[in-house]
Amino acid sequence: MAHIEARDITLVYDTPGRTVPGLRGVSFAMEASEFLCVVGPSGCGKSTLLNIIAGFLTPTSGEIRIGGAPVNGSGMDRGVVFQDFAQLFPWRTALGNVAFGLEMKGVPKAEREAIALEQLRLVKLENFAKSYPHHLSGGMQQRVAIARALAYNPAVLLMDEPFAALDALTRDDMQQLLADVWRTTRKTVIYVTHNVAEAVYLADRVVVMTPHPGTVKTELAIKLPRPRDPLSVEFLGYQKELLHLLGQEKHA
Predict the structure, then answer these.
(1) In sequence order, which residues have a C-beta less than 8 Å from that of residue 46 and are 6 or more positions away?
(2) Strand order in 69-70's β-sheet?
(3) Exposed, middle or buried: residue 169 (CB in 10 Å: 0-12, 13-18, 19+)?
(4) CA within 20 to 30 Å of 95's CA: 117, 136, 138, 161, which one?
């Protein structure tokens, strides 16, 4: 049985005077511990799909199944990391932010702080445990967000362009960090990005979506050893193939 299944997901928005399709018949499946990237043109519904998997939106038809059970709303089995730096609580330290989910689960203070510190160590921020978000760079804030999403040990990590607002050098560092964290934790990851090189660097498999209303055009397995070399001929070949698929969509 697949760990995550999207079964014919369709979403239609009701707006004054008309309905607007968002997603149309999206289907795919993935195994536990797989790293799946979703790419597609702007407005194709990548973030909408992620929000449906997270349980924040309800599809018009179709269903998401995780571990064989249908998704009906949000749950502690899924951790979510967004692009916006404001996702952290500004009144909490890095340690307090990471410990938040554990606090909501009723984990005793000493235990949750020990777990939170271990997660900060995983993202190389243990020396900033007492720092508040406004004292941290954008990349450091995203590392705290990743640690927070991992701290309560969800089965699935959902990431919506978490590095899009970072400068190029910081983004490269964060991609490497995330790849290292994934190899350590072996979480099932769905990662939305518009960056083709990022998808090739991170993914076991890439789902390519069509323009609005989005559906799955094709899937591409990235059969490269890890850690990956973005300058290798093989890496550039996969990048070119994805760009070709997206270019075909633009002229469809």
Answers:
(1) 38, 39, 40, 160, 192, 194, 209, 214
(2) 18-30, 4-15, 61-66, 69-70
(3) exposed
(4) 161
Which residues 6+ apart lie within 8 Å of 250 measured at CB? 41, 211
Check: CB of residue 102 under 8 Å from CB of residue 151: yes
- Determine contact, residues 4/29, Cβ cutoff 8 Å: yes
Spell out the residues 6+ positions from residue 237 whose beta carbon is closer than 8 angstroms to its own: none
d(CA 66, CA 7): 11
Query: Which pLDDT tens digits describe the chain residue by residue (252 residues)?
Result: 679 999 999 999 888 888 888 899 999 999 999 999 999 998 899 999 999 999 999 999 999 999 999 999 888 899 999 887 778 999 999 999 999 989 988 999 999 999 999 999 999 999 999 999 999 999 999 999 999 999 988 999 999 999 988 889 999 999 999 999 999 999 999 999 999 999 999 999 999 999 888 999 999 999 999 999 999 999 999 999 999 999 854 433
- CA distance readout (Å), 185 to 164, 181, 241: 23, 6, 29
E strand or H helix that includes residue 20 = strand 18-30
Verdict on whether the full-model pTM lies above 0.90: yes
